[in-house]
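User: Quick one: structure for sequence A, then sequence B.

Assistant: Sequence A:
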Amino acid sequence: MYLSIATTHQPATDLGYLLNKHPERLHELALTYGKALIFYPEASNDRCEAALVLDVDPIGLVRGKGQSDGLLDQYVNDRPYAASSFLSVALNKAFRTAMNGVSSARQELADSAIALEAVVTPLPLRGGEAVLRHLFEPLGWQVGLTTIPGPQGDPSSRYVRLTLRGTARLSALLNHLYVLIPVMDDAKHYWVGDEEIDKLLKRGEGWLDAHPAKELIVRRYLRHRGVLARAALARLAPETQDEAIEPEARSESEETLEAPTRLNDLRMAAVVEALRASGAKIVADLGCGEGRLLQLLVRERWVDRLIGLDPAVRELERAAKRLKLGAPGAPPEGRVMLLHGSLTYRDARWAEADAAALVEVIEHLDPDRLPMLERVVFGAARPRAVIVTTPNAEYNALFPSLPAGQFRHRDHRFEWSRAEFADWAQRICATFNYQAAFSGIGHHDESHGAPTQMAVFTR
């Protein structure tokens, strides 16, 4: 991953004083996950450019942590190469003094707004171009984007080369990048705790409290941990401390939208019946959330073992409470296992499942991450049966309170028509040697189909 910062303020070579890195030297920094190189592709009085290149060691990241749970697969993907929290950490280590607005040799210049240009590549476009512009343009930056083609020249790649141009203090640019790069990636490579609030407020001082996308920035920077996000917003603007920032509190949720049709009850019943018909004895609920499907399945005598997987610890805590794990009346020890993990990484802990269910899960993933899920579920684990449900986008026109073109839930990355879902499923079948049977769940409309579509994959 690559970051460059350039200026045409003359003499431009004063950028070296601001960054505390001599333009005629190659600087190398050792990091726990690789190394960072800082050098100057151009250094003249008219223009000076400093580049930070991050070389992440994907094997070193997981060395010594074992292979049985698929850890080595975790970084054989885009993570070491796309601009992310790895780059923010390196930025802070390489240019910390400049980020603090300090220059022992040119303090007056460090306090001044100068012409600056920054390039970040490849930058994940989580949420699309509109989100990226909504993050940087209110800060006064002119935003330029160049799409980076995907494999075999696929133009639908979700990665871009970002160019920012504007006049500002160098410290402001560095702090904007430090905060907003992981916000665009919508992920972090390390555990997020209370100390992250202090980092966010320090680097967001003077601009974050008035930013129109403040809540989005806070939520993504803190990895959607609602308790931390609320605490951060309270410190940014105490008058808002009682406001919830969870998506469900900001807009009509999918559950509320579908409640009149009892669609969730019908969906769960259909999935339970499909799992029963598969003859499975060990069932994995992938993306189990608060455990509603598991609660139904635990009552079924034909199930020997249940496994719930979810990336959100808070949801797993709710699931444990719903299932009464560790409390009187709980299922027998060992019958239910809740796992914290991601569907885009191989995980041997649930690989023995006879059947897997992905109930309203795939639409929460960015389309460019679906191939990882496919390889993990259908290619590596290969359960005998996989049940997938997802919204039918055609039916959205029949929800009177849903504006045209809007998804049922703000966290959905896409919603497919019946034809799009069928195309995806058939590609799965052709690639991984499965067969798929399709059905609808809920009221069937002649023109629009059913609100939920379901595919049962078998091999």
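Sequence B:
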Amino acid sequence: MAALLATSVSTAALAQQAGGQVTAPPPATGAIPAPQAGQTPTPVQVTPVQTPLPTLSREQAEQVRRLIVEGRIAQGLRYSAAEAQVLPQDDQGLVRAALDYARAIHIGRLATADFQEDWALRPAAWDPLPAFARAVADNRIPQWFAGLTPQYEGYDNLRKGLARYRRIEAAGGWSAIPAGPDLSVGSSGARVAALRARLAAEDGDVAATGNSFDAALKDAVVRAQRRYGLPPTGTVSTQTLAALNVPVASRVRQIMANMERWRWMPKEMPVDRIQVNIAAAQVAVFEGDRPVMSMRGATGKPGGGETPMLASSIHSVVLNPPWNVPAGIAARELFPKGAAYLARNGFKVIGTGANRRLQQQPAQSALGKYKFDFDNPFAVYLHDTPGKGIFNAYDRLASHGCIRLEKPGDLARLLLDGSAEWTPEAIDGALAAGKTVRAKLPKEVAVYLLYWTAYASQNGTMNFRGDPYGWDKTLASKIETRSAAQALAAR
């Protein structure tokens, strides 16, 4: 993931145009005369007005150099200080580097073509040149740069976490704990001493020395397991050992990848919204920008069932929904089981031949009693499930891409609160009747499907999850490829 670090200095990509400013050139001698009535007018070419690159004073140039070098490290754009210090020596090259840096911290480092289809949460195009020119003219360059980063607590916590894990790395990081039998209360020896040293590097409440596994060390293991989304058993077995042995350099890069995704977010989110963390399979509901409900979810399994990143708005709740089975799932998983299985599980075959499809009836629907609809090109949604056992598991990446909910009834009542038609009694009555009914929300509620593998809890503690879809690594690769192409174009 080393190239996740690189923000390139682009030249061709930085010949920016001022948005929306166009002028028609003056008519030249011999120009085509104005059309007569009934004639088709000749198209008039317009030339965009180019904003010239500003000229920096000596003091401003020094200021820009310092801000870029410091910002590349603090904002997670470069991994090493040596890489961060590489800047053009000429004035125009420095200005282009400043524009490239501004774009990187504001909307990220990928071009539109770099986004894969299921990364549907994408930043709007943005040209930094006009605003940077004004900042130079007003001598407000630091203030302008400071306002470009995502103004979200989640991003700021990652920035602080990045600084902390860089300090841990600079102090020597941590060593891997040797493989061996499970460690638990009563264990002792060199591996327990290694465990203590490892935990103490991240957790200031752990005594770093000693070779005995006591109750206090068990508590520290539980805290670590919670940070990594693992069952909090207090025993160091295979999963916990693997998480603890991830090098600090990889954690630094993981934080950097998630900071990049924050830059793709809209610059403001609605204060009332639902957020799904795909990687952690967690769902949170916000009202007035404060969490009011949380629950476990089950998100898409790797290898073809990935839940996409996207933003949309829930507009209705379907009560007693049938399941219209996607064609691929029907062909791969259901039709081969035969007609008896389909009939026994409530599937109805609709159509014939190549056009036949499956619909599972509401009484046995895999969607349970609730389906939460929002427009998106992937045909995914939030829904109930008859199989509640999945929510007792810590690994809940198990769906075909939709998000199963632990508390769908509570969410439905919350979203329909304020509806004159869909009172709690009306909802219960519709569910009892067993017929499919669509309940329109009194107001649409924003929903965000996000992929966070590193984030901070409310007390600022960094939490890490696995990279189940490999998207952290893919992102790093795409940034590396883009950076190499831009560096080549700049020669």
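The longest helix spans residues 471-489. Confidence is low (pLDDT under 50) at residues 1-38.

User: Thanks, that's what I needed.
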